Each structure stands twice: as C-alpha cells, then as structure tokens.
Amino acid sequence: MPLPRLIPCLDVAAGRVVKGVRFENLRDAGDPVELGAAYSDAGADELVFLDVKATLDGRPALLELVTRVAERLAIPFTVGGGVRSAADGASLLRAGADKISVNTAALARPTLISELAALLGSQAVVVAIDAAAGEARARAGTEPTGRSAVDWAVEAEERGAGEILLTSMAADGTRAGYDLELTASVAAAVSVPVIASGGAGGARHVAAALEVAQAALLASILHERPDRLTSLRQELHGLGVPLRDAA
Amino acid sequence: MKVAVCDYGAGNVLSVLSAFARLDADVCVADAPAAIATADLAVLPGVGSAASAMAVLRERRLDQALRMRVARGGPTLGICLGLQLALDRSDEDGGVEGLGLLPGCAVLLRQGRVPRIGWAPVDPGGEAYYFAHSYAAQTPAASAISEGIVAEARFGSFVGVQFHPEKSGAAGARFLKRCLSPV
Lengths: 247, 183
Description:
The complex is a heterodimer of chains A (about 250) and B (about 180). Chain A is an alpha/beta fold. Helices cover about 35% and strands about 25% of the residues of chain A. Chain A has one domain (about 5-240): TIM Barrel (Alpha-Beta Barrel), CATH 3.20.20.70. Chain B has one domain (about 1-180): Rossmann fold, CATH 3.40.50.880. The interface of A and B includes residues 45 and 162 of A.
C-alpha cells in the first residue's frame, strides 16, 4: 500500500480562499495558489480545492485558478464543486486538475460517475459523501437521500469512482476526532482508497483515521496555517505514522 | 534543450509542461510528428484510457513518429499511461495493441486497493513518488520497483515510469532533471 496521505482542503469562491461558518459569512482568506504552495512546501501530499459557490459565473475564475495551481505546484490536486457533466470534469482536467470530486450531482444522477470514469479514468474521479447518522446527504449535507453512506460508496465504486472522500457531518468542525466507525465501515465495503474527513482536532485523531483510511482531509485543524501542517507532520512522525519524506 | 510533450487530448499535458518549464527547459506541445522527431527529449505523458489514447496517437501519426524516434536512439520518456502504451500490449479496455517500444504488457493490479493512489518508495534509491494507476507493466526491462510493481523500465533510448514525476514534488523534479542531463 502507498504511504498514508495528508490532504489540506481549501475552500474557494471566485478564485479566492474563503473562510466562513457553514458556507455563510464568507470572508477572503487569501490567494489559493500561494496558500497551496505554502502547504506543498510544508509537506502536503495532495490538495483539495472545494469551490463552495460553484455558480456558473464563478466557473471562469475556477478554471483560471486551476491553471495557476497546475503551473505552480508539483503535487496532485483535486477540484470539487459544481461538476455536473463529464464535459465539466474534462474541462477541469484540461485546465490542469488531476482529479475532480462530485457529490450532489452524482447522487441526483449516478451515471455521471460512470461517464466521468469512462472519459477521465477512475483514478481522476473522487466521489465525496457527506454522511449524517450513516445516511448520505446531498447539497452540502442539508438534504436527506434515504441512502446509507456505505451502500452509496459501494455503488459509486461499481460505477467507476477511484476514491471515496467521506465526511462525517456530525464530526465536521467539532475537532473531537474523525468518525472512525463510519470510516471503517466504508473502507471495509469498498476496495478503492478512502479519504477520511471531518473532526480532526489533533495528531492522535489523524493517526487514528489513517489506521482505517488511506488519507486524511485536513480543514479546520489547519486554519489556513501551513506551519500547523509542519508541526502536525512532526507529531504524526512521533506517533509512528509512516509519512513520506517531503524534502 | 528542447522537450516535446506529446498531446493526445487526454489532459495532464499542462502539468508536464509546467514541470519542465520550472527546470528551464525549452518545452513545447507536440501534436504532429515533426515536433517529436526534432526534440532533444520526447515525453509521452499519460492520463485516460489505453484504447482512446492509442486511437488518438494513431490518428495524429504520433505512434509512428515515436517508433522512429526510439529506433534511432532519441531519448524518450513515458509517464504512467505513457509507460503502459509503450509496451507491446495492454489488457485495458479489453486488450489494446501498444507502441512496442518496450517488451511486455500492462496488466490489471490485483493486490491492495485499486486504483493504487498515493506516494510510495521506489527502489533503488528509496525516494517516494506519486502513483495513480489501475494497471501496471510486466516487462523484463524493469529498472526500478515499488512495492513489487514496476516503477521504471528502460529499453534502448526509452525510459518509462509508472509514477508521475511532474506531481512528485522535489523528488519528481530531481528525476526530471536527470532525464534532461544526458541529452
């Protein structure tokens, strides 16, 4: 198995990093390329750029951002938000993204996953699942779907997903630890890599998540601070987590 | 130092172009045979599926240009799918005839989680590079291994790597620099 991965997640809107609470009261937190580069220097294994607005008028800004990231950074990155067709995914990859992430659009029309996998290859298709009480939720977790997160992950894999990005809504933002039970259930049910998300408060949480998942998404724990990633890597190293030597 | 990156319409070209540009190479996109013939280093990058990639390479007559280039000893680098396309054959998409620049075939990974995604050490050397693949080369020309999987193969003037040096941070940049140095 490849080494466990640490993946900082940057929320972006209109080409800028934004901070907010539950996608509201967004405020500018800088240039995604600069912050991404700082995370890369601090040892990030990958990056995720999540377009939290993903409106039609935001699309040119997103494509331009993707190209600037690809020109500057030599680590893989995923772009999520607003991908509704295989053509949307292809344009993001052409602009320089390595992978695209889909969530609500795939729940509404699961064949989107197969279309993306056929056009881009499974290794470029991440299916993001927001789970609450074991159920997959749509629209940033606001809409119930009546489907279990585990069943949806299995179907996503069957349809060609190359990775599952699993967020526990209950744990998200609490910094009380990842939902290990849910993560382990999904990881046991699929044979593609699973990225654990939601709840990281400290190195022990991340180390525990990396016992059951292949990667950990890091959002609020980093607070847009690359130096926190540096110290986190050191703490994880101390806990015996075999991270890559990024030098 | 002229580097030509084959464009067969499957994305990822920009990342490869940027990686060579950061090393101050004179890099261009090659979507016609002439650019491949004249470059100091030709690069066959790789994302997408084997069948569609081979179809576009044939349609643009890049397949023949690559064979001629390697036959006369022109340094050529295949990345990820670019390594798999260089083989005689791939099992992907129900079986695809490859470029035949390298003996062997590409077979589906059967161990661990597939796609195999992430950073893994490559021996000899022990440096970690980024991999993202579901198929892997089986070839007598293997020159480096990662977790039992062919990470690099060399045959004549062709070098193929299963990992993505353009996405492998400082270690990847060092690898690409070595590709430029013997030119």
